[in-house]
Write a structure and sequence with these properties.
Rossmann fold; alpha/beta; 260 residues
Length: 260
């Protein structure tokens, strides 16, 4: 899909992948509603951007966002759901509210936005893109709830594609660990993963994926190579997983763990 001339809603734009993606989108002839729960004063004067502050984990806020977008833009050609967060933890206590919070933001908001785009566009061409994670295919110890949300979203989208029956396209983005504020949200003291990529690299891959209408976008060539190596040498992922389990156990036993 040609990005030029499109009206876009992008969530999670205050930092990380979302901010970098917004900067790349502004190189095109577009109008973007930049959504984040944090205020974004640096965008107020940009002629191509309309900042919008809201918490997408609530149904009423998504309804208000779409109403705002239609009033300001007339249509929404592309919806990019990038907002989300994760926990790094060893689950040792029951916590319903913690589960509910992450699923509302990472899963419910995205599925509901996809339904809103369907209802809004009917037989128009439109596109939806959601940020998932390579943890859908290769879960990492410490991220059980985060991986669960991304697997749930991935399962919905892979099935929903066949059910839509209109002119919509849905893209899924599978980044590896990225140098963003995600790690501060997941836990300031948590050990970093390897390999790491930059938000800029992910943003460029997303733009290219949108233009080529790729159903699945994998920004990391290292990850793609790793899948091949893992298939040929099954011991490699087992050793990597053992290393990550040791890191989690060490972190969990430290006084820095939030449940301690």
């Amino acid at each position: 899909m040609d990005i030029n001339g499109k009206c876009i809603v992008l969530t999670g734009t205050a930092s990380g992948i979302g901010k970098s993606l917004l900067e790349h989108l502004l190189q095109y002839n577009v109008k973007v509603i930049a959504v984040d729960k944090e205020e974004q004063p640096w965008l107020f004067s940009h002629p191509k951007v309309i900042p919008y502050q809201c918490d997408i984990s609530k149904k009423k806020n998504i309804d208000m966002l779409f109403e705002f977008a239609v009033n300001k833009l007339g249509v929404v050609d592309i919806f990019i759901g990038n907002a989300g967060f994760g926990y790094y933890e060893k689950i040792v206590i029951e916590d319903w509210e913690r589960i509910e919070k992450i699923f509302h933001t990472n899963v419910f908001a995205s599925i509901y936005a996809a339904e809103k785009m369907y209802a809004l566009n009917k037989d128009r061409r439109y596109m939806i893109a959601f940020t998932a994670s390579t943890m859908v295919e290769f879960p990492i110890p410490g991220y059980a709830l985060y991986a669960a949300t991304k697997c749930a979203l991935d399962g919905f989208i892979r099935t929903y594609r066949y059910e839509m029956g209109n002119k919509g396209k849905i893209l899924m983005i599978y980044p590896i660990s990225t140098k963003t504020q995600f790690f501060q949200t997941a836990g300031n003291t948590r050990p970093l993963e390897w390999p790491l990529q930059t938000p800029d690299k992910v943003a460029k891959a997303i733009i290219k994926g949108i233009q080529r209408e790729k159903a699945c976008i994998y920004p990391s060539k290292i990850y793609s190579l790793g899948k091949i190596i893992s298939a040929v040498i099954p011991l490699v992922p087992k050793l990597y997983m053992k290393r990550e389990i040791m890191k989690l156990e060490k972190w969990h036993k430290s006084s820095l763990h939030p449940y301690n």
